[in-house]
């Protein structure tokens, strides 16, 4: 093991006001308590507590941006190295998962439907099944996981973890309808007519955002979300240009390198990447190259045309004059700097938005101003009894954010169904 979790646990100061939990963790995992139980050889209790607070603890211990969250806030990090909290959490959650004792409440006779088996859907299904509801999950793909399975590469999140979740969910009596898209032959109203007391929509954000430049439909251009879905079927060639510099772009770049591409370059408009520090560093270690101050202009059959960028001094001066602090340096195109950079494939990784299949089918489902599903403060959509959370509501966000919101929505769905009964 690369990190010695016992040594790490022994370094924890058991802070009375733990910054790791209060400031750092979006789902307020009780980190000092987890470490205390672990050190007292009470690992099953620690695992139980982790699962009850966050059913996707095992996943989050691998894919969260810990450097910005728990570990980035650990008091030990002020003068030295923070506690490697993620490794401790992963060790506990992984080794105890099969032994977790799930004691669902007796059946309450009510059915709820969950559309989408991504992070939000899995969370809602598990919480409601534990409360005694009969849950059916409808999933477009053949397996569960959503973005976890079809958007995060194996080297970051082994798919076997999702298979273990599937088994656990089946043990809870959760039923699955794989390869089935609600919004095709069947709509939400059909589910309500069939007696589901409430419906949860967690269909994620799968529609790639377009760049809006000429050449985007050419045969050498692919979108990150499509590529990550099944990289084996793509023949990218030796030279790959990636447009976009967030975490998905890093996943694409590192996957392309692992699939044999020799020159993988991420083109960035400004001077910094949007990806987390850890993902950026790993990409560089893997051999990914970065070209800064490049704005894509158009795509051609043999590569992409970029303009060079420079800091927009006028805008910077204007902000200074107004006393405004700029969060990011504004950049502008340097005139007449267009140049072709040869590439065999171009991958566009500038985020995703929700598909509109459900909205097209159920016209009463309203969207917000960003084009995502509109919900009220309780997560209820414009259709009574129909709730939603995760990327379909917020646009592409983190796994832990989807779980944290979904936990609250599961409670609201529970209240709604009990009041209605
Ligand atoms: Fe332990 Fe660091 Fe959390 Fe303090 S902030 S309880 S040292 S993990």
From TrEMBL:
Q: Where is the Dihydroprymidine dehydrogenase domain?
A: 4-98
SUPFAM superfamilies found in the cross-reference section? alpha-helical ferredoxin, Nucleotide-binding domain
Pfam families given in the database record: Fer4_20 (PF14691), Pyr_redox_2 (PF07992)
Superkingdom of the organism of origin: Bacteria
Where would I find the FAD/NAD(P)-binding domain in this sequence? 111-404
The GO molecular function terms of this record are:
iron-sulfur cluster binding; oxidoreductase activity
Q: Which Gene3D superfamilies match?
A: Alpha-helical ferredoxin, FAD/NAD(P)-binding domain
**InterPro entries on file:** DPD_II, FAD/NAD-bd_sf, FAD/NAD-binding_dom, Helical_ferredxn
Protein's name in the database: Glutamate synthase (NADPH/NADH) small chain
Organism (species): Butyrivibrio proteoclasticus
């Amino acid at each position: 093991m690369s990190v010695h979790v016992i040594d790490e646990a022994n370094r924890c100061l058991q802070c009375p006001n733990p910054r790791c939990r209060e400031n750092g963790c979006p789902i307020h995992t009780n980190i000092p308590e987890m470490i205390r139980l672990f050190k007292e050889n009470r690992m099953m209790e620690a695992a139980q507590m982790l699962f009850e607070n966050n059913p996707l603890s095992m996943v989050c211990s691998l894919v969260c941006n810990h450097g910005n969250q728990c570990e980035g806030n650990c008091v030990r990090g002020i003068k030295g190295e923070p506690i490697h909290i993620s490794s401790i959490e992963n060790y506990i959650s992984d080794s105890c998962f099969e032994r977790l004792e799930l004691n669902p409440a007796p059946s309450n006779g009510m059915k709820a439907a969950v559309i989408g088996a991504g992070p939000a859907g899995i969370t809602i299904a598990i919480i409601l099944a534990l409360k005694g509801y009969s849950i059916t999950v409808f999933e477009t793909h053949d397996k569960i996981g959503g973005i976890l399975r079809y958007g995060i590469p194996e080297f970051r999140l082994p798919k076997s973890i999702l298979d273990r979740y599937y088994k656990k969910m089946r043990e809870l009596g959760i039923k699955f309808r794989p390869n089935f898209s609600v919004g095709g032959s069947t709509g939400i109203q059909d589910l309500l007519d069939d007696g589901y007391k409430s419906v949860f929509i967690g269909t994620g954000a799968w529609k790639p955002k377009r760049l809006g430049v000429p050449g985007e439909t050419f045969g050498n251009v692919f979108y990150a979300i499509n590529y990550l879905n099944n990289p084996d079927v793509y023949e990218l060639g030796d030279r790959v240009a990636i447009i976009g510099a967030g975490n998905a772009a890093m996943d694409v770049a590192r996957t392309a390198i692992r699939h044999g591409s020799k020159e993988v370059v991420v083109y960035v408009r400004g001077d910094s990447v949007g990806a987390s520090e850890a993902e950026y560093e790993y990409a560089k270690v893997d051999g990914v190259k970065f070209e800064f101050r490049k704005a894509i202009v158009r795509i051609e059959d043999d590569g992409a045309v970029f303009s060079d960028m420079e800091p927009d001094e006028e805008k910077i001066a204007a902000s200074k004059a107004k006393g405004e602090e700029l969060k990011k340096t504004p950049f502008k195109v340097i005139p007449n700097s267009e140049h072709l950079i040869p590439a065999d494939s171009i991958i566009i990784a500038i985020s995703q938005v929700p598909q509109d299949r459900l909205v097209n089918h159920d016209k009463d489902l309203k969207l917000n101003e960003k084009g995502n599903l509109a919900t009220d403060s309780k997560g209820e959509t414009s259709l009574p009894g129909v709730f939603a959370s995760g990327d379909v509501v917020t646009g592409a966000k983190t796994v832990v954010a989807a779980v944290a919101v979904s936990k609250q929505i599961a409670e609201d769905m529970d209240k709604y169904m009990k009041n209605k009964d």
